[in-house]
Predict the structure.
Amino acid sequence: MNRNRIRKAQAKKLTAAALAVLMSAQLCATPITAQAANTTDSDKDKDNTESQKEESKTVGKDETVYVKTDASGNTKDITVSDWLKNTDGTSSIQDASDLTDITNVKGDETYAQEDNGDMLWTSDGSDIYYQGKSNGQLPVDVKITYYLDGQEIAPENLAGKSGKVKIRFDYTNNSKKTVKINGKDEEIYTPFLMASAMILPGDNFKNVEVSNGKVISDGSNNIVVGIALPGLEDSLKLDELDLGDRDEIPDYVEVTADATDFKLEMTATVASCGNLDDLGFSDVDSLDDLKDALDELADASQKLVDGSGDLLDGVKELKDGWSDFRDGVNKLDDGAGDLKDGASTLKDGVDAYTSGADTLGTNVQAYVTGAKNLVNGVNDYTTGASDLESGIKTFIGSINEKLGTVGGVAGQLKTEGTEKMLTDAAELPDGSAKVAGGVTQLNADLNKLHESAVKIAQAAGGKGTTQTPGTQVDLSGARQAASDASAANDSAVTQLQSIQASLSAVQDQLNGLTVTDEEGNEIQVADGQAASISEQIASISGAIDSIQAASGSTDSAVSQMDAAEDAANAAAQAQQGAGTASLADQLDALADGIGAAAKATSETSALGAGSTSVAKGVSDLYAGIGALDSNISTFQTTLAAMTSEDSELAKGEAELLKGASDLTSNNAALTAGGKELSDKGDLLSAGSVQLSGTSGKLKKGASDLSDGAGKLKDGTKELRDAGGDLTDGIDELEDGAQELADGMKEFDEDGIQELTGKESDLENVMDRLDALRDADREYQTFTRLADGVKGKVSFFIESDPVKNED
């Protein structure tokens, strides 16, 4: 960067100098010669500025060498102009020169040639301006080469041509000296700064370019200036430092342009020395400063190497940490997804819960109402259970009473009924006269007996389960209440059922008794038939009386059987006994006999003709009475078994009484439980109202949670996606940090450390710079200087034009 600034400063200075030289050369070249031939006192320098006076205090001899060359740069003439500065205003000035044809160009002062070749000018306190000729070798030669369309061409042949033109200036530094550098002899060239310039008319030249220089256009002309430092690259030997790619110090100038009718008026080249301090080469005061700077650079480079290594380690730790973090982010995203699903499920569950809570509230109210109804039902149940227990006791007493009545009737039938029937049967022939009236009454009684028989037949044949409505309701209610109260009441129910079975067996046996009575009526029917026999009218009348007596007994038995039937039906369901079929048959036969008796009554007038039938009827009557007697005996035996203490009926009664007692024993617990159930129902109702009241808040909270979980899931997904990009970025950062660490290490090892390791080489460069500055300061004149006089010299080289002669 410093080198670029130096080059820019050089370019500006040299461009300005070259332009000034070029302008002055074109404007003042001819008057110089004229002044040499026409020197007068009025031509003394009256235009010296303060700066010139200031400069004259340090420089005693200012020399300008004017060189004329041909178009290719070959020297044709050298004119040297010297300015002797009389800074102290002395009357004489000591000078030395090897010029010929010396002429005072600004006055009439003369000089005297001394033996040693020096000159002593009589100045009378004034400066001396003179010039002379020289044929010495120039310190710098200029070679100008011309090319047309890539081919070298002689300048005289280029004039008037058109095409791609290139003009190249090559400079040869002829001024050098040998010095000791690090103990070795080294050649150091005088650092001449060369600036070549030319003016190319815009009508003839387009697309003008220059290397190591600048093109300035004023609209009509292209002013081209290029600079070079011939020999400086060799003096410094920078190629030995192995500094890598760098711009070489230019030692040529090249101009290119598209030419039409080529013509070039002239080229002007300025060569000067004593410029290194102006170009900044004095800024580096010592090698120690450079070494310190290199040490600081090395330390900084090592810190950069360490820092880049730490950066790489940090990036690796970041990568490892990020890997764990990204795993956490992925788990977080998965968890957020689960949370979102769970929140959604929770929301659905809360919705269902709140709906259920509302439904629960409604159902709780219904439950409370039902519980109160249950309490009322329990109260009714306990009352009914007590009533049932009382009814059972009354019912059992009624059964026992009816059984006693049935036993009495059976005995009466056995002792009174059958014997009287037999007696009356013997008197049958005498009862003819009473047939008519007896038949009429018998018919009415038979109708009643028939109705009772039908009822008994129905009870025996198809209505074994018939009970009175009141009994059925009470027993059903007892079962229900017992079932609802507790399992302990099941025993009472079982016992009640056992009692019912026992009562059914009693009913069967009562049914058997009824059959026997009806068989007795069969006898009466047979007797009625015998009344038709005219030959035994009187006997039929007696028989009819006996039948009527038996009918009365039968009516009494029927009434007793009705009461027994009602009691049996109230106690339990009637069961079909073993004699049901026989009973039905006997009832049918009895019915037939009753019908026949009725018919016989209506046919009293024909009884005389049926004596034979009477005899048969009497025989049948005796047979029927015998069967009746046998059945009554069987009934009495069965009834005795039923009424004994060990009978099933007695056991059933005991169990029924115990079950009724057990059934009522739980009444107090049921009543207390019902009251507690009612009280708890009120609390449950209040709780359900409170629960239903919080449903809205719960639903809103669940909805907010679900929405928040959804947003969280979206955020974690974005974080997860961004994590992939960040992972790629961390990978790239790691690669970059690795490259930086490697690059810094390489830069430090191959660059900074190598540079600091070349301190000896740099020392050589510094020595060469010192030698260059010495050479720059030492070259003060093209001719000679008197002792103690400091000089300054510059060269102006002008080439011949390249153009067609008019």
In short: Residues 93 and 121 are 5 Å apart (CA to CA). The radius of gyration is 81 Å. The longest strand covers residues 163-173.
